[in-house]
Amino acid sequence: MAQQADIQIKNSASETGKSVEQRTVLKRGIAAQALYVVRRWPIIPLIVMAILLIAGIFAPLLAPADPTSQSLAFRNYPPTWGAERPEFNTAPDPADYDMSITKERSAFNRAKKSTFARSVYILGADNLGRDVFSRVIYGARISLEVTAYALTTGIIVGSLMGIVSGYFGGWTDEILMRLVDVWLALPFILIALVVAQQFISTGGAAKGVVIFLITLVAWTAFVRQVRADVLTIRGQEYVAAAKVAGASSLRIILKHILPGTYSTILVVASLRVGQLILTESTLSFLGAGIPDPIPAWGKSVSDGRQFIEEAWWISFWPGFAIFLVVMSLNFFGDWLRDRLDPKLRQLD
Predict the structure, then answer these.
(1) What tens digit of pLDDT does each residue of 131-146 get?
(2) In this structure, which long-range contacts are made by residues 154-157, counting pairs with CB atoms below 8 Å and at least 24 apart in sequence?
(3) What's this model's pTM, rounded to 2 decimal places?
(4) Tell me, what CATH number does 244's domain have?
């Protein structure tokens, strides 16, 4: 009888809980439900990251113009926002103008300004008459390419150093950690400027130099985080059992230690991507990044800083792209950390 009473109480309690939950769901409006879904799942960051990937991969198909094509006749041309204009369909005939006279050439150039396709200069033109929208799209490809190489190298080097340092300990741990401390104390921006200027003076800084410079700061974040995980994992019973069974250190690391660090590596990598994109943009802005004429977000922001009052769109749109991508990656990294770490998991 007592057991039946307990079962009835549990059933009634569960039904009461369900009814309360149902009432709570019913009371939620559409706006509140949408806000709840957005807070619980990184929908907006995922959309921004998907746009970044699509723009980077399919840049030649999406860009309306060549990002390096210059036309001084459209220098600092304001955004058209894709407005329909009938005069866009008529191109001036050079035969109607006397191109040997300055006045006639000026008239031809004025008429030519009304002939470009409406898909060009949607976001305006820069100080050299290059399409800003096309340069923003191609800038996504450059950011992805540079970050992918630097992040992959950083994951391999940093994770390997963290695993070796945490597993073996002793002098190995001491030496590797002091190396990280010394590396973090170095003024990276100054070193990057010196190295880039040296290459520029000897023939121009290449994209590979920028990737190498960004790789120098990509690995440090992985070392400490992975080392902290390894210090916890190596004290587990299954690791001790593997040692008693005669497993080698390499087998223990690959079979038992490394799988336990996957979540940490994934979270650090997601947070690091935004920082690396920001680093590449900073170097390009300072003149130590991607060389001309390759379009890069930081370089585009630098190109427009002298014309910020008369042509704000040159710097605004690539700067807005940097802000949007970095913020989305940071939000996604925070969400991923909360989902993978039971201690930080926040479902509501």
Answers:
(1) 899 999 998 888 888 8
(2) 154/215, 154/218, 154/219, 154/221, 154/222, 154/272, 155/218, 155/219, 155/222, 155/265, 155/269, 157/219, 157/222
(3) 0.75
(4) 1.10.3720.10
